[in-house]
Amino acid sequence: MRIELVKRPQQSALYSALSPFFALALTLIAGAIMFSLLGKNPLDALYYYFIDPLREMWSLHELAVKAAPLILIAVGLSVCFLSNNWNIGAEGQFIIGAMAGSILPVMYPDFQSWIVLPLMLIMSMVGGAAYAAIPALLKTRFNTNEILTSLMLVYVAQLFLDWMVRGPWRNPAGMNFPETRNFHEYAVLPEIWPDSGRAHWGFVFALVAALLVWFMLSKTLRGFEVKVLGQSPRAGRFAGFSASKMVFFAFIVSGALAGLAGISEVSGAIGQLRPTISPGYGFAAIIVAFLGRLNPLGIVAAGLVLALSYLGGEAAQISIGVSDKVVRAFQGMLLFFVLGCDTLIHYRIRLVRTALSKAEVSHGNA
Amino acid sequence: MKKTILSIAAAAAVLSFGTMAAEAKTKACFIYVGPIGDFGWSYQHHQGVLQAEKELGDQLETAYLESVPEGADAERAIERFARSGCNIIFTTSFGYMDATNKVAGKFPDVKFEHATGYKREHPNVSTYNSKFHEGRYVQGVIAAKMSKAGVAGYIASFPIPEVVLGINAFMLGAQSVNPDFKVKVVWANTWFDPGKEADAAKALIDQGADIITQHTDSTAPMQVAAERGIKAFGQASDMIAFGKDTQLTSIVDDWGPYYIHQIKSVIDGTWKQQDVWDGMKEGNVVMAPYTNMPDDVKKLAEETEAKIKSGEFNPYTGPITKQDGTEWLKAGEVADNGTLLGLNFYVKGVDDKLPQ
């Protein structure tokens, strides 16, 4: 006996749209079971996870701080994934973008003017895009697998940042600790509404980017091109679309947005470069992109949900004493159920008895 | 009638006082950079918290967050504690420095204690650290006595002053016994990575080291040394369970006395800003039992420890020559804390180039 997945002849648009909600509900149920097994009251636990962080103003600000990089990166990734380019290296593009954007405040701290911040934002996008162009070039020229190259460039970026903050960019007044000088006031991304919390303009960038990419994907020819080349490269060729130009376009858009996320995080939330500036945003954003069904507007919601799970994890750790590992387990379950629901909406499961399968295989080959 | 009213009022007063006393429990909160099960840095901080809980009993309530990344997340975690009624917050890693000071500015009534940093931008921020290098000097003395090859391998984490301070102290201790002693250094660029640390230990042993010491937190180097049949020193906690026939001693970070003292001062209302750098004398740096060595080495180690503990001897007492051959400290001169806390050069005899 074996299990086969058979494509459903008709796909329900309603179920497709509802799929993330099913996944969320299943995650909550599985989470409740997990908490019961840990000996905690599941309702309490879920309350601390998903409701408590939304009760106070400062915490909503923190939600925006946490969601901003996730949304920015995931919006860019949606262009990549829709066009069938598997950019797994957003984490590296985030880091290189942050470093490119930090050149002015770190190397030229005396250059203080209102122009510094806009220049930093532009340089970060250029830096992230250039770094993302490397796997694009390798893919189009040498037909290398972009999953491997983009992923490996993450480690290169992490070590490069590490070396820079310990060496050439180390703060001269920092007692030899590995960090750059603190950014001067012109280089700090302002807070949106400083009286109530520390959410910075990075969140606004994320919303604007989501709207622009949504518009591009759904209303323009370029968006159509992205989707056609993603679903059927051959059809795209007949339509006169260039697959290799699309590879560059997708990588550069997502690299630029990841770079912007990087400088927003460094300039808005941290205030200097440190050996590590991201707790894995580039990878978490992959979950966000799929949870948002590769739709930029869906990604905004998905980014907020994932950010909430981080905040909730802390609240639960303090209030009911569950380990921080539970957050990871939660995020893992969420991705598992999203992919599971999607698969089951598009395919149905069929049990095949072994005796029959041989005949079927030969039939299939014929 | 009047009497009843009075007694009711009295009862109410007693009751309200009773609830006030219950609320007056002091809450101490801790932020750890690693998991409390790392058997190194965060583990030892948590052991200190457990000691404080035992000592202060009902007066104290504690909470902790583990594996908090250094960066934007740290500020949120600290602010969450400040808002959740913590009276004193200990942030136990260098990378929390700016976040601690930022949050402290917003919550002037909460006390903040930052480990291993140097910024105290608000009157409610103190910093604290321990003179671990005092223990490393003792280890250097033991290493020079025990090593047949005259070469020790040193697994270092990051080239920050605290680590350089440890390497130099180890070297100075060894030179006090054997002026030709060599120390080889491998930079693992991590605080906790059993795989990398084990590789570093193997590389050092293959280069001729027959004593291993480490400034990283896992037990892997100890286990490699045990496999190869050489001796090693533990780090942060007593690692004798991982090297019964291997561990010579270990520097144990004992934060308990400091945490008890600081939390008590919050309870009494006597807490004030300070910059603490305590060592063996105050009980923050403790040597695990001296094992796997002959009695004369043990005796010498105990004498050295006693001299440092009593304050009679400072490991950084001249004459000391820098690696490049220039004089640093004249005979009898003692290095000042400011220089030590920013140390960025080796002393003579260290077989490595300091990453700059």
CATH architecture of the largest domain in chain A: Orthogonal Bundle
Largest sheet of chain B: 7 strands, mixed
Q: What is the alpha-carbon Rg of chain B in Å?
A: 23 Å
How many strand units of chain B?
15
β-strand number of chain A: 2
| Quaternary structure of the protein | heterodimer
Q: How many structurally independent domains of chain A?
A: 2
CATH homologous group name of the largest domain in chain B: Response regulator
Note the total helix count of chain B: 11
- Fraction in beta strands of chain B: 15-25%
CATH topology of the largest domain in chain A: ABC transporter involved in vitamin B12 uptake, BtuC
CATH class membership of the largest domain in chain A: Mainly Alpha
Distance, first to last CA of chain B: 84 Å
Mean pLDDT across all amino acids of chain A: 90
Low-confidence stretches of chain A: 359-366
Q: How much helicity do the residues of chain A have?
A: over 70%
The CATH architecture designation of the largest domain in chain B is 3-Layer(aba) Sandwich
List SSEs of chain A in N-to-C order.
EHHHHHHHHHHHHHHEH
Greatest interface by residues involved: A-B, 33 and 33 residues
Structural class computed from helices and strand pairing of chain A: mainly alpha
Mean pLDDT of chain B: 90
InterPro entries (chain A): ABC_transp_permease
GO molecular function (chain A): transmembrane transporter activity
Main location (chain A): membrane
Transmembrane segments (chain A): 12-38, 58-81, 88-108, 114-134, 146-165, 199-217, 238-263, 283-308, 329-349
Structural write-up:
The complex is a heterodimer of chains A (366) and B (356). By secondary structure, chain A is mainly α. Chain A has two domains: 84 residues, no CATH class; 265 residues, ABC transporter involved in vitamin B12 uptake, BtuC (Orthogonal Bundle). Helix content of chain A is 70%, strand content 3%. Chain A is globular. In chain B, helix 5 runs parallel beside helix 6 and helix 5 packs antiparallel against helix 10. Chain B has eleven helices and 15 strands. About 4% of the residues of chain B have low confidence. Chain B is α/β, with parallel strands linked by helices. In chain B, the strands form three sheets. Chain B has a seven-stranded mixed β-sheet, with helices on both faces. Chain B has two domains: 107 residues, Rossmann fold, CATH 3.40.50; 188 residues, Rossmann fold (3-Layer(aba) Sandwich), CATH 3.40.50. At the A-B interface, helix 3, helix 11 and helix 13 of A face helix 3 of B. Chain B: Keywords: Signal.
